[in-house]
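Box 3.1. Reading complex inputs
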Amino acid sequence: MKPFSQPAGLASFLGALPQPDPSAREAAALRQQQLTKPPGSLGMLEQIAIFLAGWQGPAIHADRIQVTLFAGNHGVTKQGVSPYPPEVTGQMVANFNAGGAAINALAGALGLNLSVHALDLDRPTGDISVTDAMTVEEALDALNAGIAAVDPASDVLVIGEMGIGNTTIAAALCAVSLGGAGADWAGAGTGLDTAGVVNKARVIDRALARSGSARDAFATLKSLGGRELAAMAGAVCAARHHRVPVLLDGFVACAALAPLVAESPGILDHCLAGHRSAERGHARLLEHFNLRPLLDLNMRLGEGSGAALATAVIRAAVATHTGMATFDSAGVSDRG
Amino acid sequence: MKPFSQPAGLASFLGALPQPDPSAREAAALRQQQLTKPPGSLGMLEQIAIFLAGWQGPAIHADRIQVTLFAGNHGVTKQGVSPYPPEVTGQMVANFNAGGAAINALAGALGLNLSVHALDLDRPTGDISVTDAMTVEEALDALNAGIAAVDPASDVLVIGEMGIGNTTIAAALCAVSLGGAGADWAGAGTGLDTAGVVNKARVIDRALARSGSARDAFATLKSLGGRELAAMAGAVCAARHHRVPVLLDGFVACAALAPLVAESPGILDHCLAGHRSAERGHARLLEHFNLRPLLDLNMRLGEGSGAALATAVIRAAVATHTGMATFDSAGVSDRG
């Protein structure tokens, strides 16, 4: 997929989205009825197999799974919105590169291809409570970093993030895209106490007042988004272009897509919710997206960790769909 | 573990259960606080790591995972409690052995060691609506088949089952062990319609009236249990003896343990609920057991399928607990 050379490129893309193949979906649904199990008894695994067929065609697969992480720094950390210092973003990127973070352990255990993209960590975005996060050029660069990161040969894509302060950015994007105020979307993030969450909500409200009501997705990301959030939005667009199904992670990874959804509600049709995060706004956000999470394990780490774990469910759906015998082939009696 | 030579052997075992090691749990909890993530942010993965340490010691592991399936036939199928003919039990065992069932696909994808134990399929148990399911000797044999099936060298054990008619058996065991009537525990099983479920509930009520109120676990299994259910109860006991953590599957696999829980509430302390089945009684049963399921994917197949998939969560817990860097080792700043 070509990079966006101007803001209108995103709007143009969102206006003409690739669609799933209904005939491949029907063939997959028919096969599910023939496998040696009571109809429907594999539950969401059956629905996932049919979903994958719509994007991949009848021969579904989940061998090559890419996990792409984007990291960014945020001027809004000056407002005391995180208990961790902003230096931790770069330290955690070093930890990713050294193999010591949770996502490294998960990617190793599950056989996922992990890549990490640190986006101008030495140049935090503008403090959104007083100014735009990015210039037009910076926002385009961030979107395009996401587009460039997607391997078109991936069977499934997991997107994740790291960025001290980015649950504040995420909450602002949700509020402006889907409605509500700071208090509706602000959560504890990496571990704020109650007073910290109240402050965070006020910071978000100041950002919303400064930014004004929602415009198009690009303008919203430029005004309120962080680099890693814009990159995740770009990656989801590129995956759609290449018909690569996406597993969404938690609050920040999903919030990055809220501006896209506000402009083009079908943009998430190639996405599944990997998990429901314990971060406060995520359950509400998934309801807005009309997505049922595959996992609900009280995780709230980011890094793509919940979605990475959910790849096991995707692979189970593929393994049963492609590996099981049919009633006919196995000589098993169907219902009387 | 030695087989039970008489019914009192089970009661004796249930009266003196091995307990988890509190110091290993404490050490695991301390390590979780030091890993490079906000405290608690891995949610249930952290709790699983601590749980495993209690049974396995500080060096937790989940490489060797055994899936053991037990199959049995049930005289109660004469009462029209399943839409499938009882011949399907044997046909599905052949399908397991040929590698064509859902559990084969899942075990293959996840690298699990699958073994299948067909228990006297040519001799269905007594029709519980009119007579005891088993003699004392038959019930001992079934329990001991479960004990013998457990590999003490397994890191984690998954137990599952196959048996046309066994959701009726399961519902009867739940009702007599935990209270309620047939209508409280009967569900659609492999796909009964509403009239079928009503009939099933009446059959269960006749079995309950014949059998009388709950006695000890052995007497309950003898009166109402099927061979594969008694075997699963035996396997859970053997796993406890060997300190092997168990992942529980769905309604039937859990119902097999209801008589044990009624006699010895701590018997499931070495067990986690792999998933919540869509079969009607399972959510209620897990509440009785005070277990929160790892997965909730609307599955209702049996065969250990839900628990098999949940092994991915267990392995993720081990991978993060053992593989992550600490704040100190990675040079990441902890909270300010």
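In summary: The first strand of chain A starts at residue 65 and ends at 71.
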